[in-house]
Automatic annotation (TrEMBL), chain A:
Pfam families: BPD_transp_1. It comes from Agromyces sp. G08B096. This is Carbohydrate ABC transporter permease. The chain crosses the membrane at residues 14-35, 68-92, 104-125, 137-159, 238-260. The keyword Membrane applies.
From TrEMBL, chain B:
Keywords: Cell membrane, Membrane, Transmembrane, Transmembrane helix, Transport. It is a multi-pass membrane protein. The keyword Oxidoreductase does not apply. Residues 98-311 form the ABC transmembrane type-1 domain. The chain crosses the membrane at residues 38-60, 102-123, 135-155, 184-209, 230-252, 290-310. This is Sugar ABC transporter permease. Residues 1-28 are annotated as: Disordered. Residues 1-11 have a biased composition (Basic and acidic residues).
Amino acid sequence: MHTRYTGRTLVREIVLIAVAVIWFIPILALVNVSLKPVNSQTNALTFAWPPTLENYGAAWEQASLGAALVNSAIVAVVSIVFIVAISALASYPLARVTRRWSRWTFYGVLGGLLIPAQLALLPLYATMRDIGLLGSLWAVILINVGTAMPFSIFLYTTFLRDLPLEYEEAALLDGCGPVRSFLSVVFPLVRPATGTVVILNLVGIWNEFFVPLLYLSGSGNATAPVAIYSFVSQYVTVWPLVFAGLVISVIPILIVYFSLQKYVIKGFAGGLKG
Amino acid sequence: MASIITDERRPAAAPTPERAPAPAAGPRARRSKRAGVVAPWWFVVPAIAVYCFIVVVPSLRGAFFSFTDWNGLGADWSWVGLENFADVFTDRAAQAALGNTLLLAVLCTVIQNAIGLALAVGLHTMVKSRYVLRVVFFAPVVLTPLVSGYVWSYLLSPNGTVNDILRGVGLGDLAQDWLGDPDFALYSIVVAIVWQFAGYSMVIFLAGLQAVPEEILEAATIDGAGPWRRFWNVTFPLLNGAVVINVMLSLIGGLKQFDQVVAMTGGGPGTATETISTLIYKNAFLLGEYPFSVALAVVMTLVIAVLSAVQYRLTLRKAN
């Protein structure tokens, strides 16, 4: 990194800010249009005064967004709790045991990164139908947990391998069994990896559309993107109304992003250093 | 030449404050202690059970059923050999989807990484607003892809913002029905995807740039290399890890593309923006063509595996 602010830097700064303004137009349009009267004919970048919040009330009711946001939150929280618990647990022997079985298990799990979900789609759908989980949030949660395993286990295992053994040895000397030692020593130590796992999965699960569409559409149990999808198909060109719904559905994830942006960006960048 | 200089400079210029040397323990002492720490094998059981139930078994069954006439409902099936694959490769919609998916994935990969790299290089300087700008460029990454698809379908509509801007700056002749014209629809979707994910590439490139040692760049400057040469001959080769990860991520993401296409065009007009994923969904859940869509999923898996292997080979070779 250059250490002085020169004329060149100023030029760069101006160019970058110009690009950032362009980059922000879609988000600005999203918010701006949602604040306009439904019959407004004006351009997305001209502001209507006074702004109206009417669309928000209407969208909230007509798209049943309240229930959808609750469902999204349940799916996200429950999935992430399970993902963190069982992938951290699994990574402990995979990182510490140097036997053949643990190495091959690790490779087997990693192989999952190359399998597209579409291959498992139909047989899995048939299985879920047979065990009566169609329309249930549990189907989506189970699928989220299963498909998150390869990457989460990979992150935890590589992180743990770099961690010195001394703490666990001290715990052993203090009389901790493996379970105690995992819960009170290892798990707190892998907190940075947990942060990355939580952030990546939170964003992915909140925004996920395909799986909830298959398992939840028409069930009254829709998550936010599915509710938005059916809402938009109904009101397709009533843009102010549609956009108000879109804004409501992304507010939670945007709040998380803007309040924790440092950690979110770090999570996305750090999760891939491996 | 540059590397000789850096080798000399390194010991003096790069102290490593991170980690104090571990307490002196020979490899043997360490190993005997390691035997004391026990990580029970059954810790892997819950994770592996869910993974097998959700990923491994259904994938194997999917591959198996692609050679049968299984209809997705009953337990009955019989062998049909390669018939489903023959259907896939002779079906017009499937050919279009394969072509579209490849084109979309390649275009997204190239453009998204070029922009991501440019932004990262721009922000990896003393620019005062760099932290704010990083947050702005990354924001679309966390936005729901379906939502960003809808926003772009509004911006690109015949009376949308893009056309308004074009008319405003006197380029009204270029105004198009971007999503309704088969010649432009796929490229319009590429624009939306690149807008959304360029910030992701940028962040990974930024992490890579931070790992480029300052001394090497200084050495190159002393050797008389201008900023352009410094970048291509020194910085860029050191970014290889970030390039591999970025290309892999955007390529696989492009090959699986579903959300934005559904939001923006639904695969139309005609089959102009049909992708493998949208076609699998339509055949399986709207048309009931189960064997066809299972075979298509197998083809998609093979395409992803082959392209990943090829890109991995290529990017690694470039490193050497």
